[in-house]
Amino acid sequence: MGLQDAFNKATKDWDAKKDSANQSDLIPAGTYQVVLDKTDHPVYDSGWDCLRFSMQVIKGKYASRKEQLRISLATKTKTGKAMPDFVVSRNIRTISKVAAMLGLTVTPELFPDNETDAYEKLVDAFKPYEGKTLEMTITVTPNKKDPDNPYRNYDFGPGIKVEEPVAKEEPVTDKEPEPTVDDDDLPF
C-alpha cells in the first residue's frame, strides 16, 4: 500500500478537528483462531508490571493482527489497598485457562507470593508453548468510569489441530549395499 492509499484509509470517516489521532484499531469482539505468539513480563515506566500474552490471529479477515492481554497479579492497588479478591481470582483463572488450552498444567508453585517471581516463573513455563494454537473469544462490556474505553474480556477454547509432519521411513530392500572405499583406493 502506498502513502496515498494509507492516507485515504486512515482518514476515512475521521475528522481531524473532532476525532482523536490515537483511535485504536482493535480487533472487534468475536471468536478467533490464534497462536500464542509471545509471553513476557514487561515493566512499565510507571512501575506497573504484568504477564503479557501476545496472541496473533491466524485465520479470517483479521489474520496476522495481534491482541495483547496484560494480566496483573498485584494483590494491592496503587493506593496500597487490598486488590478485590474477584480481580485476582479472575486473573489467575485467565492464566490457567490459557495454559489448559495449550496443554500446560498450572500448579501452585507457579504463583509464589512475590509477584515478580510469579511473572518470571509463568514466562518460563509458557515459553515452550509459544507457537501453539487456541481459540480466543473477545467480548466488550461498558466501562462506566470511562465510556470511551470499554472493558475487553477474554475466554479461550482449544485451537485447531495442526498435524505434525511425520518422517517417511525408507522401505527395506534387497539391494546391494553401497560399495565401501578404503584409503588405499584413493588417488591422493
Structure described in brief:
With 188 residues, the chain is of the alpha+beta class. It has helices at 3-11, 85-102, 115-126, and strands at residues 30-40, 51-57, 66-71, 133-141, 151-158.
List keywords for this structure.
188 residues; alpha+beta; five-stranded antiparallel β-sheet; 3 helices; extended
- Percent in strands: 15-25%
Report the count of strand segments.
5
**What's the mean pLDDT score?**
87
How is the main sheet built? 5 strands, antiparallel
Oligomer: single chain
The number of helical elements comes to: 3
In what order do the strands lie side by side in the largest sheet?
3-2-1-4-5
Order of helices and strands: HEEEHHEE
Distance between the termini: 60 Å
Rough shape? Answer: extended
SSE inventory with pairings:
Blueprint: H1 3-11, E1 30-40, E2 51-57, E3 66-71, H2 85-102, H3 115-126, E4 133-141, E5 151-158
Antiparallel strand pairs: 1-2, 1-4, 2-3, 4-5
